[in-house]
Design brief:
This protein has 198 residues and is mostly helical. The protein has a domain at 82-197. α2 (82-109) packs across α5 and α2 runs parallel beside α6. The termini are far apart. It is built from six helices and no strands. 10% of the residues are buried.
Length: 198
C-alpha cells in the first residue's frame, strides 16, 4: 500500500506592517508617572590617604620600591623557602642518578658469568694478564673509576641549587615541610638501594 501525502494549497497573503503599526492599541493598565519631588543628592566620597614619596637624591628621578617579602606566608600556610626546596630537589636528583646510573651501567657492561666470577675472585690478588680473572677485575676497576664521576661535584651542586632556588622563587613553587621530608627520606633510601644490587 503506498502512502499518500496530503498537500495543502494555501495562497500566501501579504501583510503590510505600516497598516498594523498605525492602528491604535487600547491598554487597560494606567501609565506609571515618575516625579522628581525630592532633590537629587550628590554622592559623597571618602578621602583616600595618599603616600608621598620624597626623593632624597634630586639627580635621581627613578624611585626604588621594595618588593614584597618573598618569605611572607599567609597565616596557617607553611611552605619551605626556595633555597630549601632547591636543596631537596638537587639532593634527590643526585641520589637518584648516583644509584641508578652505576646500577644500569653494571647491568649493561658485565655479563652474568662475569658478575659471578667477580663475586668469587679476590679483588686484592694479582692475576696473570692473560687470565679471565685479570680481564674481569680490570673491567671492574674501570667501572668503579667511571662511577666515581657520577655524583654532582660541589660546584655543580651549588650551581644547580642556585638555579633551582631562582626557579622556585620565580614560579612561587610551594612545597610543604612534609613533602620536603619525603624528598629527603627518598634521597637517603635511594642511596641505600645500591647496597642490595651489588
Amino acid at each position: 500500500m503506498a502512502k499518500k501525502t496530503k498537500t495543502v494549497n494555501q495562497d500566501a497573503t501579504v501583510v503590510d506592517l505600516t497598516d498594523v503599526l498605525s492602528r491604535e492599541v487600547k491598554v487597560d493598565v494606567p501609565p506609571v508617572v515618575i516625579t522628581h519631588d525630592e532633590p537629587v543628592q550628590e554622592a559623597i566620597f571618602e578621602e583616600i590617604e595618599t603616600e608621598t614619596i620624597i626623593d632624597d637624591d634630586e639627580n635621581n628621578s627613578q624611585h626604588q620600591y621594595q618588593d614584597a617579602d618573598p618569605g611572607y606566608q599567609e597565616p596557617g600556610e607553611i611552605f619551605m623557602s626556595p633555597t630549601d626546596i632547591a636543596e631537596n630537589i638537587v639532593n634527590l636528583l643526585d641520589g637518584l642518578q648516583s644509584s641508578a646510573i652505576p646500577y644500569l651501567r653494571k647491568k649493561n657492561l658485565f655479563t652474568e658469568k662475569e658478575l659471578e666470577l667477580l663475586q668469587k675472585i679476590d679483588h686484592s690478588a694479582v692475576y696473570d694478564a692473560n687470565s679471565r680473572e685479570f680481564y674481569v677485575l680490570q673491567k671492574w676497576k674501570r667501572h668503579l673509576d667511571v662511577i666515581k664521576e657520577v655524583p654532582f661535584s660541589d660546584g655543580e651542586s651549588r650551581r644547580l641549587k642556585q638555579a633551582t632556588a631562582r626557579y622556585a622563587a620565580t614560579t612561587n613553587m610551594q612545597v610543604t615541610p612534609f613533602q620536603g621530608l619525603i624528598m629527603a627520606y627518598s634521597e637517603v633510601v635511594i642511596n641505600r638501594v645500591k647496597l642490595f644490587t651489588e
